[in-house]
Design brief:
Structural class: alpha+beta
Number of strands: 14
Largest sheet: 10 strands, antiparallel
Strand content: 25-35%
Helix content: 25-40%
Strand order of the largest sheet: 1-4-8-7-6-5-2-3-9-14
Shape: elongated
Mean pLDDT: 81
Low-confidence stretches: 1-11, 270-275
Distance between the termini: 28 Å
Length: about 280
């Protein structure tokens, strides 16, 4: 086994890239247990920043069949670019054909030294829609929100939903384009003339081709005041308002990672004393 000290700078392509106009970041995810409190993130602006973020290890020639604990994902403009795997059962880092011997302490030390942020998810429940929207109006200014994982519920933008049906002649559609997209645009243009804020979302959920015509059913999310206007012009379904007001807010927290590392050190020292 070659015990030469390993450096991502000298030996690995995982952290090596030179494109100047792309935005890179590193995401570390727990894939053994899928625990939400074991996700870490580091935004990277320049390739030189990444090249300084290394942790030493030793070359290895084999890897066990014990699965993996973490996936280290290099993101390019928000999309996965490269992916490495870590297993603490056999203490291995694996990227393509490169196998590196590492340990749990050096891994967390790597996260701390490079100031990775731990991703935690705050779940907040509200009694009504107004309370939830007021909370989010203030909360969205928090710079620690991990926007890449943020999925806002419909009630933030819309009061509720309803269905609506319409029939269109088939010769009104262009053959080289998606019919659903065309009919959604047609109905959107009609609704724009009825409501003021134009704050709605519609989707085709069913269609029935009847030969020369097609019957479409739409699912529409909107404000209740706009629904009241729409139903004076169109034949629409029953209004369904939201009843569950919950927000899941992913946030970046460096102090949480520090606490996790301290607990790891305490656990390891206690284990050594027992042995």
């Amino acid at each position: 086994m070659d015990l030469k000290k390993f450096s991502f700078i000298n030996d690995s392509e995982f952290y090596t890239f030179d494109e100047q106009n792309a935005h890179y970041a590193i995401l570390v995810k727990d894939i053994r247990t899928n625990a939400h409190n074991k996700q870490f993130y580091l935004p990277v602006v320049k390739s030189s920043d990444v090249l300084r973020r290394t942790f030493p290890g030793e070359r290895a020639t084999s890897v066990g069949r014990c699965g993996y604990d973490y996936s280290i994902i290099l993101l390019k403009d928000g999309k996965p670019f490269r992916n490495a795997l870590i297993c603490f059962s056999c203490n291995r880092f694996l990227y393509e054909k490169q196998v590196i011997k590492i340990d749990r302490n050096s891994f967390y030390d790597f996260l701390l030294k490079n100031q990775f942020r731990q991703i935690k998810t705050e779940v907040v429940h509200f009694d009504n829609i107004d309370a939830g929207r007021q909370f989010w109006e203030a909360k969205q200014k928090d710079q620690n929100i991990f926007s890449e994982w943020l999925e806002l519920p419909d009630w933030i933008h819309y009061d509720g939903s309803f269905t609506m049906s319409a029939i269109y002649e088939n010769d009104a559609f262009a053959e080289d384009k998606d019919i659903a997209s065309q009919v959604e645009k047609m109905l959107s243009d009609k609704l724009d003339k009825v409501i003021e804020e134009k704050r709605f979302s519609l989707t085709v959920i069913a269609e029935l081709d009847m030969g020369e015509e097609t019957h479409f059913t739409f699912y529409i999310k909107a404000l209740q005041k706009d629904y009241e206007k729409i139903k004076t012009v169109f034949d629409v379904g029953v209004w369904e308002e939201h009843t569950d007001f919950k927000l899941k807010i992913p946030q970046l927290d460096f102090h949480l990672l520090q606490s996790l590392y301290v607990l790891l050190i305490i656990h390891n020292n206690f284990h050594l004393k027992l042995v």
